[in-house]
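WARN no homologs supplied; continuing
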Amino acid sequence: MNLFKKNPIRFEGQKEIETQIKNQTDNVISRRFKILMGVIGAVGVVLLIRLFITQISQQEYYSTKLKQYNTSLFTADTFRGNIYDRNYKRLSYNKNINCATYYAVQSITQDDIKIIANFLVKNVNVDIKSVTERDKKDYLILKCKDTKDDLINDLITSEERSTYSSDEIYQLQLSRITSQMLKDNLSDDDMKYYMIYSKIQNCTSGSVVLLEGLTVKEASLIGENSDILRGVKVTNDWSRENTYGTEFKSVLGRVTSKKEGLPASTKDILLAQDYNNDSRVGISGLEMQYENILAGTPATYSLAYDSDGNPVVETVSSGTKGDNIRLTIDWDLQSAITDEIEKQMKAHTSSIYRYANNIYLVMIDPNTGAIYAMCGYQRDEKGDIYELAGGAVQNAFEIGSAFKGGTIYAGIKHGVINQYTEFDDTSSGFKIAGTPTKFSWDTGGLGRLNAAEALSQSSNIYMFYVATLLGGGTYEYGEPLSIRDSAFDQMRLDVGELGLGVKTGIDLPSEALGYRGRVTQRQAGNFLDFAIGQYDTYTPIQMAQYVSSIANGGKRVQPHLFMESFTEDDDGTKISLLQHQVKVLDDVSSYKLAFDTIHTGFRMGCVSGLASGVNGDYEAAGKTGTAQKVYEGTSDVWANRAFIGYAPYDNPEIAVACIAEALPDAGGGTCTTLSKYAFEKYFEKYG
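OK structure emitted
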């Protein structure tokens, strides 16, 4: 065995060995050794033949292995699914674009890179709008190095050069390049050239997109000059577009570009899910919420090299397009209501509207939580207005008397009042020792009222009496009033059962909770303010869930924008995949007396009360709200104006919640006007 380990297939010298043995041994031994060597020789020949056969038979195997070792696989995003409204009107989609993509060339020279960059700058539109100040500094450093200009080198002293590392010197150079230096030494053509140059230089493996949005002529020109544009190929790609521009974009959300790649906050998680660093991914709104549905399966490509080091790209798998999403939104309603809000905002131009920065309206099915419209406009510090539907989930306001349905609910739930309980709303108001007298909107008094009448006439005084009882207090005119601290927490729990002051669970990545009054402010007067909606703040989507809970008789239903996901076959037939299931988050419908009383009061309010301006053939029920606002440094009083309601009152199928911030008396009808318009548009379409 030792012989074979040293020289397993070498048989030269066997004859010489045999001769030496023959001279040293007798004939018997010699004959036996000959026999032995003959056997060994035969075995060696057999091994040699087998080895030869093995080499021939496995040549293809090892050639394939070698090719694999020299081939890399990479993936590319496929089309995302489209987003549609409930009637299949397309809202977000993928726009085809032609790109110039560079696939890393083995041992590419600086001269090759310069040829490519110069050609593209000269013959193709190179967009530099996205170039940042930092990019420009990098380009100037490259330019100075390329042209042997000492401008950048002179920024570093000899002492610094001998003290700091190359990375530290580079950072010093970046910090010392001024805007004026960039302006004086870097032209637009320079930026175009070095943008391409740096992308190619830094791409040592895989690929990088050099240019997007090529015209057909530009794409053809690149293809015709492939001999000098080493590694540059025209590829088909896509960009995410919204059909209606920026309208509803704050809800639809945004998808990153290939340049942005994965967001830093979720990069590690996404990489673990087989995303690439340059993968496009939803980072806000519905695009983020339903990334797992909208994102397709990436296509896979192989990248190998020919004998000249040029890349050879082949498709391994084409991937699959993401699934489509159908929303509950009715775009006809969404667009029409948004236009009306815009008109209102544009009409609020004088100085008395200087704090009127937000108007929102949400239209929702109170039985399923399906949102038909979520509209909003905001005014910035410069006075410019812009559409911001997402503000209905992010911004919170005091909602005034629209809150009073919650007070009546809490009062009946805890047994401190019933539908027949009456209190006097008089010109003497409600007076606590040491505090200003509180009144209803009519300081002359609204008379003796029961719970439903108090809602329809929006009596503050009635709610103050209910709050006093809820807080375990005893009211005497002009005397101190003591309220349990726990009453604040209990009230929040009660109205939270209906949707106020709690997250609604809407299917968007983030949702505001609203502001809660501080524990240190739990005085009796503040609890009275709480009972009329002037203490905590609530988002418009919370208002929508709250009015839905009242409309459907006590079920807090999760509001949602997602209706279903679907795909289409080759004939265009839509195939439903995943459908939304109604989710009830809380159910207090057992307090039927409370909801019957609130329904009666809300209907009376739309027939003959303060909300009568909203009524129509659709027979609405609802409640207005006014929350006074005093701004620091002014003596004037503004008010948030609100409306919540539903229709038809006896079998609600649609509900509306509206809030308009800090309006003067002249704008007091803003929400009732908008809500009436919304009801009319809905019933005009759906009957």
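The first helix runs from residue 2 to 6.
OK
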